[in-house]
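User: quick one, sequence for these tokens?
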């Protein structure tokens, strides 16, 4: 998706990148999405994503979020949120909040028909690392949900059977 507006600002040692997108459906503008990245000199990136509806019609948006692709060596997962099994916003009672450790591969839920899976809700922080000690850490002021896989969303959506998913 090509942004409607894009701005880069460098202020001292910090940089910020702002992208604004219009999400369309059936030739109508439905939502305006603003993503603001603030990058510190030590490599911390603060991301703020805002979605605003621009049409008065009732619209169900099944998902709003971001996708990040990491090197395949990033296989270790630790997080503070609901676990240890998959949980969804409307079904949380069986998933206590705590600190959980797993691997990316173990977080896959092998449904008969391939579909989104492995979501974890009410997460405050997430750490994905490799065996050499490199990691990506995500902290949030508000709780977020995540899922993590060793295949791409496109690969999952194209799969008709579990055997079609390329790990």
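Assistant:
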């Amino acid at each position: 998706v090509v942004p409607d507006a894009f701005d880069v600002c460098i202020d001292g040692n910090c940089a910020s990148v702002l992208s604004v997108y219009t999400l369309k459906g059936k030739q109508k503008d439905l939502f305006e999405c603003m993503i603001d990245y603030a990058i510190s000199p030590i490599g911390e990136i603060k991301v703020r994503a805002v979605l605003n509806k621009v049409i008065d019609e009732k619209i169900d948006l099944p998902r709003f979020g971001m996708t990040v692709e990491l090197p395949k060596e990033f296989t270790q997962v630790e997080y503070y949120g609901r676990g240890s099994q998959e949980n969804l916003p409307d079904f949380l009672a069986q998933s206590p909040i705590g600190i959980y450790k797993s691997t990316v591969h173990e977080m896959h839920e092998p449904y008969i028909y391939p579909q989104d899976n492995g979501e974890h809700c009410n997460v405050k922080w997430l750490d994905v690392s490799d065996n050499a000690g490199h990691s990506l850490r995500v902290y949030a002021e508000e709780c977020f949900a995540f899922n993590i896989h060793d295949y791409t969303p496109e690969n999952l959506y194209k799969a008709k059977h579990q055997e079609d998913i390329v790990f």
